[in-house]
Every structure is written in C-alpha cells, then in structure tokens.
Amino acid sequence: MKDSLIIALDFPNKGQVLNFLEAFESEQLFVKVGMELFYSEGPSIIEALKKQNHKIFLDLKLHDIPNTVKRAMKVLASFGCDLVNVHAAGGSEMMTAALEGLDAGTPSGLKRPDCIAVTQLTSTSEAQAKSEQFITGSLQESVLNYAELAKRSGLDGVVCSPLEAGMIHHRLGSEFHTVTPGIRPLESEMQDQKRTATPAFAREQGISAIVVGRPITHAANPLESYLKIKNDWKGVRL
Ligand SMILES: O=c1ccn([C@@H]2O[C@H](COP(=O)(O)O)[C@@H](O)[C@H]2O)c(=O)[nH]1
C-alpha cells in the first residue's frame, strides 16, 4: 500500500468502470470499489478488476455488532482484495472481530487483506462533529483517539484526512498506515469534502496512500489528471 494513489471507482455499474479503465491500459492501478459499485455489481466486479491485475481496496466501511462484522469479513476475505475497512466508532471489540473474520476467511497460502478503520469522515467539519456527535474535545483529538483505538485493536492503519496524517504518524509511528481521501488539487472543487489538502501537501505528511475520486473520474481527461496528481504526490517535476 505504501506510496499508492488509489482511484475511487464511484460508478454505478461495471460497464462504466471498464469504459473508464480503457484509458489506463498501460497502468497497473490501485482502485477502490465503494458501496455504489459493489451493491450494484456484487463480487463479480472484484473478479473483473483482479483479471486486469489491479490492486483493490473494497471500501464498505463495516459498522455493526462484532459477530456480524466477523462473519461479513470472513466472506469479504474470500474475494482476494488487498484492503478492506471498518468504522472505528464500532469499537475495539468490533475491530478485533473484523480481524478474526479476515483471518478465518483468507484462503490458505494468501496474505489476509490489510484492514483499516475510518476515524472521522473527511466530509465532517469541526462544527458538525461538535454539534452532531457531541465530541468533547477537538475533531483532531477525536481522530487521534480513534486511530489509537484502531492500533490497539491490531488494525493496520486508518482512514483520515491528510490534515491529520502527520499527527497520527508522529504519535503511532510511520508503519501504521494512513489512507487519506479528501485530496483536492488547487484547481478542484471541494464538493462535499470538508477536510481537504493538495497532493503536494499529502507528500509531506508521510501518508501511505491517497484516495482520489472525482478530480480524476470527472476530469475531461482522466488519465492526464491521474498522472498529474500522481506526479504532484510523488514530487516528480516535469
Ligand atoms: O472519510 C472518508 C472515507 C472515504 N471516502 C471515500 O473516498 C472517496 C473520495 O472521493 P472524491 O470524489 O475524491 O471526494 C469516495 O469514494 C468516498 O466514499 C471519503 O471521501 N472520506
């Protein structure tokens, strides 16, 4: 996962995904399958993407009682994805159960998928967290609390904003992964994202992987946009 740019394939169906990926023929990608695509296509979309040799983040953000999450993760592990996730708000017992499910479902001889926890969605602002979630401290403290809980529960990392990744690595070490959506090049709209930063800022934070959706998928030339963001993220000067 280290130094990856993960493209969020937020499309309604397989046809649109395969059409989008045609432009990326020469690239081996790390792609994210979210709720919309997975709910419409089911596991066959994972099969199709694996056939194209792409790495896959299955972003279903599980959040339920431990037994349910464990059983669901056992199923997800059998798909052969590289990365899956839960909401840290589900608690340490739920996160431990998620790992047990993954261990139980991973086919023998294969590595279990990495499992990370969403801390606070990047679409949540400080004001929303205070007024709607009644968090007592700052939003950053809430993110750090969830990250510490995830690490104590044995998870491989967290989903957070690029604005919090540096703080998390400082406290929890560089090996604990930070995966950050909320990436917006300077010229891009924020849309529903609240805690955003540029790819260049992300590079300075020691982030493991950035997740980018609309700035690539809605671009006039998605491949060009992908390459530009990737170069900014890797610090490549053209
Ligand atoms: O806190 C989170 C967790 C997940 N996401 C997902 O990342 C992508 C971001 O897409 P953009 O189009 O670049 O905004 C999207 O699939 C979300 O479901 C997130 O944004 N924030």
Verbal overview:
The chain has helices spanning 14-21, 35-41, 44-51, 66-77, 92-105, 126-133, 139-152, 162-172, 199-203, 214-217, 222-234; strands at residues 4-8, 30-33, 55-62, 83-87, 114-118, 157-159, 177-180, 209-212. The protein has a single domain, classed as Aldolase class I (TIM Barrel, Alpha-Beta Barrel), CATH 3.20.20.70. The mean pLDDT is 97. β4, α5 (92-105) and β5 form a beta-alpha-beta unit. It starts with a strand and ends with a helix. Strands 1-2-3-4-5-6-7-8 form an 8-stranded parallel barrel, surrounded by 7 helices. The chain is of the alpha/beta class and 238 residues long. The protein binds ligand LLZGTKA7. The ligand O=c1ccn([C@@H]2O[C@H](COP(=O)(O)O)[C@@H](O)[C@H]2O)c(=O)[nH]1 binds next to β8 and α10.
Helix content: 40-55%
Specify the CATH architecture. Alpha-Beta Barrel
Shape: globular
How is the biggest beta sheet arranged?
Answer: 8 strands, parallel, barrel
List the domain count as a whole number.
1
Keywords: Decarboxylase, Lyase, Pyrimidine biosynthesis
Family: Belongs to the OMP decarboxylase family. Type 1 subfamily.
Protein name: Orotidine 5'-phosphate decarboxylase
Subunit structure: Homodimer.
Summarize the structure.
With 238 residues, the protein is of the alpha/beta class.
